C-alpha cells in the first residue's frame, strides 16, 4: 500500500469528511530517498479507483491546491516530492495494486500502485515473465516506471507497455493504446505520442496499465566475461550485438567489487554480463557460442576469461549481484561517511569509450572521487545507459565550510570545491557534448534535472512538452511548483534571444 510502502510518513491518519466524499490524508515528513519536502506538503492523498482520483483532483481544483503523484519515491531526482517553499499541495498515491493475467495473450493488467516485483511474482504464478529489472523493483511502482520511462537490464518500459490509462488535470479519463512503437528513448521529456510515458507527474495520475509478459525462455545462455581493458570489452560487445542478445551489462571492476562478486581467480578491468536467447536452440549451440568466444579471445591474444552459467540458480545469482550494485554503493557511502553521486546518463555507443575513460579519469584526478560506473547496453541498439556513480569524500564539504569560504583568495574555488555539484555538472555537460542525454531513466523534470533539461533540450521538444501540459493540465494542478520553475527557466533561456 502507498502509505505503508513509503517509509517515513509519520503522524496519524486524519480523515477529512466532505459531504459524502472522504479524502484520506496523512501528514508527510521525510522520505527514504529525498528530504527536500520536509513539512512542505499538506499531506498524502491515498486514492483508489478512477472516481476517487477525479474527486481528489476536483477538491484540489476547488481549493487551489496542487498535487504531486508519488509511487515508491525511488526516482533519485526529486520528482515525486515537494520543492522547497512549495505552494500548498498533496502527494497522491494509489491505495490498490490489483493484478490480473490474460494468459492467452500474455498480458497483465496492473494498477499503477503495483510494484515491479508484485508484477513479476504474479507473472511467475502463470509461468510467465515480466522483463523489467532494476535495483529498486521491490519499492518502485509501475505507475512511477511509466511516468519515468524506466529501463531495466533488458528493456525499457516503453517496449513492454500495451496500454495506459489515468486521469488528467482536466479530470478527463485518458486511455492510450500503443499502436506504434513509442519514439521516446530516454526519460528527459515525455513521449511525443503517448503522453503518459515519461510524464513524470506533470499531466495527471496514471491509474492502471496493461503490460506484455513473456514465456520464460528455455533456450537461454548467460555468460560473464572479464576483460583486461575497456576497449576489448566494447569490441567484443560490438561483435556479438545481434537480435538474440537480450541482456548486456557493462560493469567496471569497481562496480563489481561493490556487488562483492569475485567470479574469476584474477581481477579484470571490465566485465560484460550477457544473455542470449535462441528460439530454436540446437543442442550444440551453447558449445558453439563458447567455442567462438574462446577462439576470438585466443585469436586476438586478449587478456580475458569467460564463465558460462550452468543452472538457472547460477544465472539468478549473477543477475541479483548486478542488481545489488546501486544499493551496495549506497550503504558503502553511508558506512564511510561519504556522498554518493548517482547519475544515469545516456551515451551513444560510438562515444562510450571516450566517455567512460575521460569521465573516470577526470573524476578521480580532478575531484578526488571514486567512480563506480556500469551500464545497460541492450536496451537500445545505439545508446547505452551509463550509471555513473561516484563516492565523494564528505570531508571536502568541511573544507569548503571552514577554509575556503573564509579565505578571499580561495573564494573563486568555492564552486570548484563543492565536488558533487561541480562533478555532476561536468558529467552532464560531457554527456551532452558527446550527443547523449542527462537522464536516461530517472526523469529529466525532477528538481535535480530541470535546469539541465531546459538548458540542453531543443526548443521543439520543450514546446511540445508545454503544449501537452496545457492540453492535459491547463489549471496546473499537477506539479505546480516545478512547472512554474520550468517556465521560469524556459523564459530565461529563450527571452535572451
Ligand atoms: C537502487 C536504485 C536503483 C535504480 N535503478 C534504476 C534503473 O536501473 N532503471 C531505472 O529506470 N530507474 C532506476 N531507479 C530509479 C527509480 O527506481 C525508477 O525511476 C522507478 O521507475 C520510479 O518508480 P516509483 O514508483 O518509485 O516512482 P516515484 O519515484 O514515486 O515517482 C517518479 C515520477 O513518476 C511520477 N509518478 C509516480 N507515480 C505516478 C502515477 N501513478 N501517475 C503519474 N505520475 C506518477 C512522480 O510524480 C515522479 O515524477 C533506481 C532507483 C534506486 C533507488
SSE inventory with pairings:
Layout: H1 2-5, E1 13-18, E2 21-26, E3 43-47, H2 50-62, E4 66-69, E5 89-94, E6 99-102, E7 107-111, H3 116-125, H4 142-148, E8 161-168, E9 173-177, E10 204-212, E11 220-227, H5 230-240, E12 245-252, H6 253-258, E13 270-277, H7 285-299, E14 304-308, H8 312-323, H9 325-336, E15 338-348, H10 352-367, E16 370-376, E17 383-393, H11 395-402, H12 414-417, H13 419-433, H14 450-456, H15 459-472, H16 480-495
Parallel strand pairs: 3-5, 4-5
Antiparallel strand pairs: 1-2, 2-3, 6-7, 7-10, 8-9, 8-10, 11-13, 11-14, 12-13, 12-16, 15-17, 16-17
Helix pairs in contact: 10-13, 14-16
Bound molecules: flavin-adenine dinucleotide.
Flavin-adenine dinucleotide binds at residues 68-76, 79-80, 112, 134-136, 140-141, 143-145, 147-148, 150-151, 166, 199-201, 205-206, 326-327, 441-443.
What descriptors fit this protein?
single chain; 497 residues; alpha+beta; Uridine Diphospho-n-acetylenolpyruvylglucosamine Reductase, domain 3; Alpha-Beta Plaits; 3 domains; 7-stranded antiparallel beta sheet; 34% helix; 23% strand; globular; disordered N terminus; binds flavin-adenine dinucleotide
Amino acid at each position: 500500500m502507498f502509505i505503508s510502502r513509503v517509509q517515513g510518513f509519520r503522524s496519524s491518519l486524519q480523515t477529512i469528511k466532505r459531504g459524502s466524499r472522504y479524502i484520506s490524508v496523512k501528514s508527510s515528513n521525510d522520505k527514504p530517498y529525498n528530504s527536500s519536502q520536509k513539512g512542505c506538503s499538506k499531506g498524502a492523498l491515498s486514492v483508489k479507483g478512477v472516481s476517487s482520483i477525479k474527486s481528489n483532483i476536483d477538491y484540489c481544483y476547488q481549493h487551489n491546491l496542487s498535487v504531486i503523484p508519488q509511487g515508491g519515491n525511488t526516482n533519485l531526482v526529486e520528482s515525486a516530492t515537494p520543492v522547497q517553499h512549495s505552494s500548498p499541495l498533496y502527494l497522491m498515491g494509489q491505495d490498490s495494486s490489483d493484478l490480473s493475467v490474460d494468459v492467452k495473450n500474455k498480458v497483465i493488467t496492473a494498477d499503477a500502485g503495483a510494484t515491479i516485483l508484485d508484477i513479476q511474482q504474479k507473472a511467475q504464478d502463470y509461468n510467465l515473465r515480466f522483463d523489467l529489472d532494476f535495483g529498486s523493483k521491490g519499492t518502485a511502482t509501475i505507475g512511477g516506471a511509466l511516468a519515468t520511462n524506466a529501463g531495466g537490464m533488458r528493456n525499457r518500459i516503453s517496449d513492454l507497455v500495451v496500454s495506459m490509462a489515468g486521469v488528467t488535470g482536466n479530470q478527463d479519463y485518458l486511455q492510450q493504446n500503443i499502436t506504434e512503437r513509442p519514439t521516446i528513448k530516454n526519460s528527459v521529456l515525455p513521449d511525443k505520442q503517448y503522453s503518459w510515458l515519461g510524464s513524470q507527474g506533470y499531466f495527471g495520475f496514471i491509474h492502471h496499465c496493461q503490460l506484455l509478459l513473456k514465456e520464460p525462455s528455455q533456450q537461454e545462455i548467460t555468460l560473464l566475461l572479464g576483460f583486461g581493458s575497456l576497449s576489448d570489452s566494447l569490441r567484443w560487445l560490438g561483435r556479438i550485438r545481434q537480435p538474440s542478445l537480450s541482456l548486456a551489462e557493462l560493469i567496471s571492476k569497481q562496480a563489481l567489487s561493490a556487488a562483492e562478486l569475485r567470479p574469476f581467480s584474477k581481477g579484470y578491468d571490465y566485465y560484460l554480463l550477457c544473455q542470449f536467447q535462441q528460439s530454436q536452440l540446437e543442442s550444440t549451440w551453447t558449445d558453439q557460442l563458447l567455442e567462438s568466444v574462446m577462439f576470438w579471445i585466443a585469436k586476438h591474444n586478449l587478456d580475458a576469461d569467460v564463465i558460462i552459467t550452468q543452472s538457472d540458480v547460477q544465472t539468478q545469482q549473477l543477475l541479483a549481484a548486478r542488481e545489488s550494485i546501486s544499493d551496495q554503493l549506497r550503504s558503502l557511502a553511508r558506512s564511510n561517511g561519504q556522498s554518493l553521486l548517482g547519475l544515469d546518463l545516456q551515451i551513444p555507443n560510438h562515444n562510450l569509450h571516450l566517455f567512460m575513460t575521460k569521465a573516470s579519469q577526470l573524476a578521480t584526478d580532478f575531484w578526488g572521487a571514486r567512480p563506480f560506473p556500469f551500464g545497460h547496453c541492450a536496451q537500445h541498439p545505439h545508446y547505452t545507459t551509463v550509471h555513473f556513480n561516484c563516492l565523494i569524500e564528505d570531508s571536502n564539504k568541511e573544507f569548503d565550510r571552514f577554509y575556503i569560504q573564509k579565505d578571499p583568495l580561495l573564494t573563486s574555488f568555492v564552486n570548484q570545491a563543492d565536488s558533487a555539484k561541480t562533478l555532476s555538472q561536468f558529467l552532464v555537460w560531457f554527456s551532452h557534448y558527446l550527443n547523449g542525454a542527462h537522464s536516461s531513466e530517472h526523469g529529466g523534470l525532477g528538481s535535480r534535472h530541470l535546469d539541465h533539461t531546459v538548458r540542453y533540450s531543443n526548443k521543439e521538444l520543450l514546446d511540445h512538452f508545454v503544449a501537452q501540459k496545457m492540453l492535459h493540465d491547463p489549471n496546473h494542478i499537477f506539479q505546480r511548483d516545478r512547472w512554474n520553475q520550468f517556465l521560469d527557466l524556459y523564459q530565461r533561456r529563450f527571452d535572451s534571444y
